Amino acid sequence: MSKPLSVPFETTLLVRDTCLCLHVQRAARRLARRFDEALRPVGLTNNQFSLMMALNRPSPPTMAPVAALLAMDRTTLTAALKPLERRGLVEIGTDPADRRSRLLALTPAGRSLLAAAVPIWQSTHAEVEARLPGADADQLRRDLAALG
Length: 148
Hints:
Helix content is about 65%, strand content about 10%. By secondary structure, the protein is mostly helical. It has helices at about 10-20, 20-40, 45-55, 65-70, 75-85, 110-130, 135-145; strands at about 90-95, 100-105. Strand 1 (about 90-95) and strand 2 form a beta hairpin. It has seven helices and two strands; from the N terminus they run H-H-H-H-H-E-E-H-H.
């Protein structure tokens, strides 16, 4: 019987201390919790806020550009839209130019709720950026975008 392979504990510590993926995931979870808590008074999660912002356009978009902007697949986007649609915040309609495509639009109630949420996002976002001492938030955004 052969001895099972194992990873030295030192490697575990190395990954814990240096893995960019782990550090970005941890930061993303902390940020998500912060924005979820901030947006709770208006009944939105940070994901719902981002989705509604992605729909805040002069003309209703189809699913593909919204999914691309949010870096999610269409199935995940469809699932994320359902609770917003049930609450009357989003409408999903058929594209008259291509009956196979769906148009996504904020309802008047959705626009009003988004307008109430934006000042909350603005203040929370300013607090988050202020907690990045010595960091250049624009450079951080560029660096993260370069990973895409």
